[in-house]
Amino acid sequence: MADDSFADSLQNILDGIDKFIWSQWFLIPLLLFTGLWLTIRLLGVQFRKLGVALRHGFIDRNDADGAGDITQYQALTTALAATVGVGNIVGVATAISIGGPGALFWMWITGLLGMASKYSEAFLGVRFRVADAHGKVSGGPQRYLSQGIPGRLGKFLAWFFTISAIIASFGIGNLTQGNAVAAGLENTFAVSPTVTGVIMFVLIGAVLLGGIGSIGKVTSAFVPLMIIIYLTGGIIVLVMHASEIPAAFAMIFNDAFTGTSATGGFLGAGIILAMQMGVARGIFSNESGMGSAAIAAAAAKTTHPVRQGLVSMTQTFIDTIVVVTMTGLVIVTTGVWEAGQNNAANMTAAAFSEGIGSDWGGTIVSLSVVFFAFSTILGWSYYGERSAERAFGAWASIPYRMVFTCVIYIGATTEIRLAWTFADIANGLMAIPNLIGLLILSGLVARETKAYLDFDPTLQAQPRDIEKFLIASKNPWRSKF
């Protein structure tokens, strides 16, 4: 009883902190304002250059001669691996079950504005990256906040982010994901959580031994396949409920601004709750503004920061506008959202089962949770490791990997009631210093982005021409490598 009382008290405390951080008076307006401000300063780069960015990242892949440790595509899939996770399935269901269908609208807004934030942080990640003690490329908010913002403010923001990222890597990137994998395999295939924990310990440990090179190779092959399988299942469900799609869109847009009245087991929600859940779960899903993806972007082989920034920007588009939309539409069109927030964990599986059949639908969702969570662990292991190196030195790399791998087993074999709330708080703590930094550095991002896109609007310039452009514009970036 004492343990239960302590856990309940701790949960209440964390809930209070979570509600404050993600309130409509603090992080939500900061996120939306930063994304809107960067969208204006960059002249809507996420809309103007989306097609060019998708082509450059998935078709051209022509920056192999640039400095860096992994290809642009591997950096993109590593970031996708970290973001396309349980939040795309359980997180979306939770947002809709509490905030109503209108929460999906605010997830879209967060994603569209977040593309400008994701571009900016990836640009800065490459722009201020350095070579570490082992000759590997290192960058991210822990670098560009301290180097781009002079004085004590920059150093404080960098340390704030670094410590928050280390903590977050064990929450959003480990405990919640390991628990989701174990629960999925146990519910669908009756695999013991202990067995799952051991298998994940071995598999994750083997990949992490190879560092970012191994992570990039695994995610580049693994991530596209898992997304395609999930989207295929979702498309089948939507085809089966095609007649409900127009009404679903109408409900989403209407509820975003009017709220939802109580229906069956669903708790009524107003516009503030819809916005709060949409934005909070939106950033949990796509991580735009958190600064995490900038760490992977910094390792990419690229000939200019703008080119990698545009490629990284497509990650938010794929995560939110494609995968999250699929989950949300499946939940709304099948009507399972009315079951209420107590059923959020199984809501997406119920929606897939409604359209495909209980056997295939539940299996696809369960396997997707397993694969998405596994990939998220890989991506976040790299984010946490780089942050640990920044905080404690290069020697911290191996100890961090060892501890991170051991915590995976704990997450798989332990019922963690506080994990999701803890992950939400850690996300917010990471976002705060990064968003402040993006606002301060927005002028630099806007100037150098305009200069480069005026020179190379279709990203077709050759490395030698880019080198001449950097010299002519007196840009110090290239001289670092």
Task: Describe the protein in words.
It is found in: Cell membrane. Belongs to the alanine or glycine:cation symporter (AGCS) (TC 2.A.25) family. This is Sodium:alanine symporter family protein. Keywords: Cell membrane, Membrane, Symport, Transmembrane, Transmembrane helix, Transport. By secondary structure, the protein is mainly alpha-helical. Helix content is 77%, strand content 1%. The protein is built from 21 helices and 2 strands. The chain has a two-stranded antiparallel ribbon with strand order 1-2. The longest helix is centred in the middle third of the chain and has 39 residues, at 151-189. 57% of the residues are buried.
Major sheet attributes: 2 strands, antiparallel
Q: Which range does the strand content fall in? A: under 5%
Tell me roughly what share of residues is in helical segments: over 70%
The run of helices and strands is: HHHHHHHEEHHHHHHHHHHHHHH
- Structure class: mainly alpha
| Average predicted confidence as pLDDT | 83
Cα distance spanning the termini: 59 Å
| Spatial strand order of the main sheet | 1-2
Gyration radius, to the nearest Å? 21 Å
* Helix run count: 21
How many strand units? 2
Q: Which consecutive residue ranges, at least 5 long each, have pLDDT under 50?
A: 261-269
Shape, principal axes of CA atoms = globular
Subcellular location: Cell membrane
Protein name: Sodium:alanine symporter family protein
Keywords: Cell membrane, Membrane, Symport, Transmembrane, Transmembrane helix, Transport
Family: Belongs to the alanine or glycine:cation symporter (AGCS) (TC 2.A.25) family.
